[in-house]
Amino acid sequence: MGSVVEFLALNTKVKALEGRLLSKEQIGELIACNSYKEALRFLKTSTKYSEALEGYNIEELHRGQLEVILKKHYIRNFTKLMHYLSEDYKKLLRIIFIRFEVEDIKIILRGKYIERENDELLNMLNFQCSLSTVDYNELLQANSVGEVVEKLRGTVYFKHIANLVKDVEKEGLFQIEMALDFVYFIMLRKFMKKLPKEDRDVIRKLNGTYADLLNIQWIFRGIKYYKLKPEILFNYTIYDGWRLKKEDIKALCYSGDLKEFYNRVNSTIYKEVFYRSNFQEYLLEKEILAYLKKIYLKYSSEFKRNISVVLAYLELALLECRDIISIVENKRYSQLGEDIIQFITATI
After folding, report:
1. Is 50 exposed, middle or buried (0-12, 13-18, 19+ CB in 10 A)?
2. Which of 44, 62, 70, 336 could form a disulfide with 321 if both were Cys (CB 3.0 to 4.6 A apart)?
């Protein structure tokens, strides 16, 4: 595993990458742009994203293309970090990459479910790279959801979703997508045992906090929109929580109604996240990410000689992509700066 010397060199490299992230001033200037096209021009001419946008005609670039470009840029930096890691930590990043690969697999599954053309799907995929464990071309050649799943045979995903194909016609893709999301947590849980205690503690807090917040969000949606039974809600929760024990999650699932659910959430450490959003969908995701961002920034500033600095940077860079997309997207609707700020994790 990593030595003090290894992490000192690695953290120095990560700090150099962090220096390429947007400053508060740049975020402010981006928000102040008067139009979608002006925001794109600012990104290309006045930020480090100029290299990502090189070769693209920003006068013709639409929102979907920008998202793909930014995510591809992110994953290039993600893979670059692999060169500075020992083999054990490379394995860790490969597991973290599962989160992104699952996003692309879902795009393909949804595309096959609603019979989208392959060319359209190909332009929506974000994360194909040297870390990919699936054959994108093979998956795109499938003619149905069942064929996509069959083509995943031999990957870490297959055993988790193979038995769910039979229910797609009746249930849609819900069960398959949830099962795919679980793969990351399952793989990480197994691998963490091999890490030094200090690194295990970092990952347990980061991943566990993320799991806690996802669980609360999932239970809320399951009660409000899907009217799911408590046992079904509980069955689809993640078991890797940080501050919420199994009994806490179960109690949330078995809330008699939304009012009881809200009261129970307000008794948890995460009440501020959901109080700020007032459980409004358009704000909930942002408040969850903003809460996590505080933790990432803390780890980044501490500069400890363990895996925390690397993981914090990777999450902060990903959040920046989300913020840029939100800002530029809202420019299409001519929203003012104060309106845009409520949708992003950045503070100015």
Report:
1. exposed
2. 70
The burial of 186, by beta-carbon neighbours within 10 Å (0-12 exposed, 13-18 middle, 19 or more buried), is given as middle
* 69 vs 56: CA distance, rounded Å: 10
Radius of gyration of the chain (CA): 21
Long-range contacts of 137-143 (CB under 8 A, 24+ apart): 139/105, 139/108, 140/108, 142/108, 142/112, 143/112
Return the ∠ at Cα 238 (arms to 236 and 244), rounded to 5°. 120
**For residue 335, is pLDDT > 80?**
no
Q: Tell me what the pLDDT averaged over the chain comes to.
A: 94
Give the number of other Cβ atoms within 10 Å of residue 253's Cβ: 24
pLDDT tier for residue 51 given thresholds of 50, 70 and 90: very high
**Alpha-carbon separation of residue 237 from 137, 165, 219, 231, 301 (angstroms):** 32, 21, 8, 10, 32
d(CA 127, CA 100): 6
d(CA 159, CA 183): 10
Q: Which pLDDT band holds residue 7 (cuts at 50, 70, 90)?
A: confident
Euclidean distance between CA atoms 320 and 324, whole angstroms: 6
Q: Cα–Cα distance between 95 and 84 in angstroms, integer?
A: 17
Contact assessment for residue 288 and residue 276, using Cβ atoms and an 8 Å cutoff: no
